[in-house]
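sry for the spam today, last one i promise. struct tokens for design, 369 residues
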């Protein structure tokens, strides 16, 4: 019994390492999931480590097998997601593990993609490899919640970022908003941008702040998340920072079909047209279109109108609330009226953690089931 318990703890230790490797791919591997793989040889030493590379290829297993070489024979592979079993742009990873002569595979969670969904595990078992599944499954599900959301709900995972005073204000009545939070909180936002496939804002925020939405931390310069603007009437100024940098970092504009976009397209902005009603673009169709483009994780940075629309439609999966230790009183609230008829209609969230960032606090919540 003690040996079995020891083996289970060891499995969790190596799976935690695989999950840590997988996180290196967040924001860089869409439309693929971020996967990590650790190969431990017959002597109990790590022989290979890998994670999904930028653009989604090579896969984590391929990278780990390349490192392990002949030491993969008889080894155990720890993979943070079920190895793929289908021929896509790369050969199936499950078959690569079999061909390398591994004796055992430990996986964290089943891949929900219909092309895999248990077939990878079945292929490994049919080849005689010992299997253990669902090791640190909840951590693996959290890590790839964006990929799972795209597969299961046909939309990306939406993380709403708010930065407010203690009384929930994002700006003075005049519109002045820089800076409510401090330098540490602002630096953390750049890290968040690097870990998401895209950043989304409304045209109101562009016109008010002319943001660049880039990752400006040392070491993150190569991270170039897609910058998305919801802009029904294509009012995005040609002289804005977003348009001026569209050739070096993607800018996608979601607008109505009758909007004038030729000049923006000529400047390098990708246009996605969607039906629009009296209240603007249909958010459900917008998110579906972005999922079809391959996006899995979107960080929403503003403004209040977009935040309100997403909360009203219950599309917010994760809420990151930066709170500055200050009270503004009169000012612009982070969220406008949601038109609730009763308290039972409120969007509910589960608190996950609170961390200090200088004088500010970052509260993380996930939507309650």
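last one done:
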């Amino acid at each position: 019994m003690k040996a079995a318990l020891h083996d289970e703890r060891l499995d969790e230790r190596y799976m935690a390492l695989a999950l840590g490797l997988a996180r290196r791919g967040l924001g860089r591997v869409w439309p693929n999931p971020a996967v990590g793989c650790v190969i431990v040889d017959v002597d109990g030493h790590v022989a290979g480590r890998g994670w999904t590379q930028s653009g989604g290829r090579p896969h984590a297993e391929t990278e780990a097998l390349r490192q392990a070489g002949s030491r993969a024979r008889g080894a155990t592979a720890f993979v943070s997601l079920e190895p793929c079993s289908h021929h896509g742009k790369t050969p199936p990873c499950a078959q690569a593990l079999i061909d390398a002569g591994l004796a055992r595979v430990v996986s964290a969670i089943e891949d929900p993609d219909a092309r895999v969904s248990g077939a990878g595990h079945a292929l490994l078992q049919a080849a005689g490899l010992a299997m253990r599944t669902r090791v640190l499954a909840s951590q693996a599900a959290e890590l790839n919640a964006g990929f799972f959301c795209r597969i299961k709900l046909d939309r990306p995972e939406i993380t709403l970022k708010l930065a407010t005073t203690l009384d929930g204000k994002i700006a003075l009545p005049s519109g002045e908003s820089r800076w409510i939070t401090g330098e540490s909180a602002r630096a953390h936002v750049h890290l968040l941008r690097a870990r998401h496939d895209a950043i989304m804002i409304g045209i109101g925020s562009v016109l008010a702040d002319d943001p660049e939405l880039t990752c400006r931390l040392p070491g993150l310069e190569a991270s170039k998340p897609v910058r998305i603007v919801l802009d029904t009437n294509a009012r995005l100024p040609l002289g804005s920072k977003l348009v001026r940098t569209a050739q070096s970092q993607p800018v996608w504009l979601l607008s109505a079909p009758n909007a004038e976009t030729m000049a923006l397209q000529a400047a390098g902005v990708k246009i996605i047209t969607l039906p629009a009603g009296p209240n603007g673009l249909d958010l459900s169709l917008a998110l579906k279109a972005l999922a079809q483009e391959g996006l899995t994780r979107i960080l929403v940075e503003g403004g209040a109108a977009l935040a309100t629309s997403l909360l009203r439609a219950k599309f917010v999966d994760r809420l990151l609330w930066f709170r500055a230790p200050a009270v503004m009183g009169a000012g612009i609230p982070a969220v406008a009226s949601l038109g609730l008829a009763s308290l039972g209609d409120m969007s509910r969230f589960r608190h996950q953690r609170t961390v200090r960032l200088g004088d500010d606090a970052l509260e993380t919540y996930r939507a309650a089931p």
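Residues 2-23 form the longest helix (22 residues). ok im logging off now
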